[in-house]
Design brief:
single chain; five-stranded mixed beta sheet; 19 helices; globular
Length: 455
């Protein structure tokens, strides 16, 4: 992504100096497309820094974690006050906030930007989520917007997010939602393959048709391509090992949701589904012990699966935006949720027609606290409920795991319940630990304890 961002910057009219600690990497890069562009190689950090005009703007594209601090440790002593350092990796937002504060004390302006779109997006236009030192933004705004993807209405998919770790927090939640999107798509595939007995090619046709409707998105589009791919006469998907990797942003999203007391249960299930997939030998041992149900999905149609996918997707985004809203309030980021949806409309991995509807919902009501209550989405959920319940119950009967659809439906049922069994949980807590409880016949904020042992 770093190489492609350099080429993208050069195409936008910028003179770019590139450096990699492994000289052969720089040499290989310069022998390719970069040789025809305004790109200059540097053999050292000192040479790179010396080639830049003040205030210097340096973009780091390194692995999140300690590597960022190691690079900063070597780089910062070479900089002057007012210079700008940008971390374009997937750093944890709390680390970005820490780095910004530490570098500000040295007069260095630090930005943490989320960059989504993969290698192709980096080359031809990603979605960019900048945050950090607000004084640095005016110096790089035109540059970053100049390399960003452009939505259908002509708006660049890049806008200032907020101070501290706001940019990387938004990118983290974006990635968490991406985990959810991939899981609900994978479950649809599995339900059609195992539950309805459809071939990979036919399922690919189904995804291609869905991509013409309300599910139109990059991930649905590439799913159709994947399922249609044949190599050496064999459907490629059938020989790909069913082990899904992860880099941590989904896990971070779930941890943050717990910190902010906002449920992201669908993302959690997507993360755990990858963890379950990661041990195929254990799964095979279990499969040899427990008979696999032979029941097919009864009374479930492809249309039911599409409705369940769409409803679950709504829940996933609603949970993600709840988390964004709460984090913004607690950190005084003043996030514009409609703007966030807008900059995800192109360039990024979760780009989808669906995001136009989310943008419209927040334009209509900037204070919207739950997407599921917006008229457009509440109507869509209401229409999907019968199909959703058929799919979840049918999957359970057929022994086909559908954790994302199931957790999304459970969340929906929980959120629409006037009364939950939490009353019993709180009574239990008071019984064994005197944790007290509130009463329905008294004002909120009054707490009571009962001497349960005296009954």
């Amino acid at each position: 992504m770093g190489a492609n961002l350099a080429l993208n910057l050069a195409d936008s009219g910028k003179r770019v100096t590139v450096y990699n600690r492994t000289a052969s990497v720089t040499d290989e890069f310069m022998s390719g497309e970069a040789a025809t562009k305004a790109v200059v190689p540097a053999g050292s950090l000192e040479e790179m820094v010396g080639s830049l005009a003040s205030p210097r703007v340096i973009l780091l594209m390194v692995k999140a974690g300690d590597a960022v601090d190691y690079v900063l440790g070597d780089l910062v002593p070479l900089l002057d006050k007012g210079d700008i350092v940008i971390d374009g990796g997937n750093s944890l937002y709390t680390e970005t906030a820490r780095r910004q504060e530490a570098l500000a004390a040295q007069g260095i302006r630090f930005l943490g930007i989320g960059v989504s779109g993969g290698e192709e997006g980096a080359r031809y236009g990603p979605s960019i989520m900048p945050g950090g030192d607000p004084t640095a933004w005016p110096h790089v705004e035109d540059t970053l917007k100049g390399i960003a993807a452009v939505a259908q209405d002509g708006a660049p998919c890049c806008e200032w997010i907020g101070p501290g770790g706001a940019g990387h927090f938004v990118k983290m939640v974006h990635n968490g939602v991406e985990y959810g999107d991939m899981q609900v798509i994978a479950e649809a595939y599995d339900l059609m393959r195992r539950g309805l007995g459809m071939s990979a090619n036919d399922i690919g046709d189904t995804f291609a048709s869905w991509n013409e409707g309300r599910l139109r998105s990059f991930l649905v589009e590439i799913t159709a391509d994947i399922l249609h791919t044949v190599v050496d006469g064999e459907t490629l998907i059938d020989v790909i090992l069913d082990v899904a990797g992860q880099k941590g942003t989904g896990k971070w999203t779930v941890i943050a949701s717990m910190d902010f007391a906002e449920p992201t249960s669908l993302v959690a299930e997507a993360v755990y589904a990858r963890i379950v997939s990661s041990d195929p030998e254990r799964r095979r041992r279990a499969a040899s012990i427990f008979d696999e149900p032979t029941t097919i999905l009864e009374d479930v149609t492809v249309d039911d699966i599409e409705a369940s996918l769409y409803a679950s997707k709504i829940i996933s985004y609603a949970q993600g935006f709840r988390l964004l809203r709460t984090a913004s309030l607690e950190n005084a980021w003043n996030l514009d949720l409609g703007s966030l949806a807008a900059i995800w409309r192109a360039g990024c991995i979760i780009r989808a027609a669906f995001l136009e509807d989310i943008t419209a919902a927040y334009v209509s009501d900037p204070d919207l606290d739950d997407l599921t209550t917006a008229d457009f989405f509440s109507s869509a959920i209401e229409d999907a409920i019968p199909s959703w319940r058929r799919v979840v119950s049918g999957a359970a009967a057929a022994g086909i795991p559908a954790p994302a659809y199931s957790s999304a439906l459970a969340y929906f049922d929980g959120m629409r319940s006037r009364r939950l069994p939490a009353d019993l949980i709180q009574a239990q807590r008071d019984y064994f630990g005197a944790h007290t409880f509130e009463r329905t016949d008294r004002p909120r904020g009054e707490f009571f304890h009962h001497d349960w042992s005296s009954r």
